[in-house]
Design a protein that fits this description.
Layout (H helix, E strand, L loop, with lengths): L1 H5 L7 H6 L24 H15 L12 E4 L11 E6 L2 E5 L45 H4 L41
Antiparallel strand pairs: 1-3, 2-3
């Protein structure tokens, strides 16, 4: 997601990227913005961990295997656009992709995170997100040193609090109500 913030084809704020498309009838780019997940109270341990990781990422820490990926999906679905992009890696249950051609090169990542996030929520109207089948024309070209931040050493992860075993779903299973999460309601 932060790769999209740095890419010239997307907004240069985290919320701008995350909520882009949430007003469309075809579904959201990030399913949690439309599926009711935001109404749930997060687990305190996971919230602390996610907050720390987010701060490190915004400070410049990058998980190297993701590389120049701007698209991803769970292995449970196969979006129409997946075959048109170059697969970068598979991490856990997610496949990561980048555009081919100039839009998939480091030069396309010329935007700088500006901070100043808007309040969360659905935007009244915004331009449609870029179509992965039509890579954009690059608007600017920046030197690698211009947007490379010094790496931040990750802090050790807190020990997870074990949940009772009878509350855990079977390994690799997806709850029925989330089985189609991330699938387009209709093709845009």
């Amino acid at each position: 997601m932060l790769n999209r913030v740095a890419h010239t084809a997307w907004p240069n704020t985290v919320c701008g990227v995350v909520y882009q498309g949430s007003e469309r009838s075809t579904g959201c780019q990030f399913s949690f913005t439309c599926d009711g997940s935001l109404a749930r109270v997060p687990s305190a341990n996971f919230w602390v961990r996610a907050s720390r990781i987010a701060r490190e990422a915004l400070a410049g820490s990058v998980y190297a295997p993701v590389g120049l990926a701007t698209h991803y999906h769970t292995l449970a679905v196969h979006p129409y656009w997946a075959d048109s992009l170059e697969q970068v890696t598979v991490i856990g249950a997610h496949q990561f992709y980048r555009w081919t051609g100039p839009a998939g090169t480091r030069a396309a990542f010329a935007m700088h995170y500006r901070g100043g996030e808007p309040l969360p929520g659905r935007a009244p109207s915004s331009p449609p997100p870029p179509d992965p089948l039509s890579p954009p024309v690059l608007q600017t070209v920046a030197a690698l040193s211009e947007f490379t931040a010094a790496p931040v050493a990750p802090a050790p992860l807190p020990e997870p609090v074990a949940a009772p075993a009878d509350n855990l779903p079977a390994s690799g299973s997806v709850r029925a109500e989330y089985a189609n999460s991330g699938a387009w309601l209709t093709r845009p």
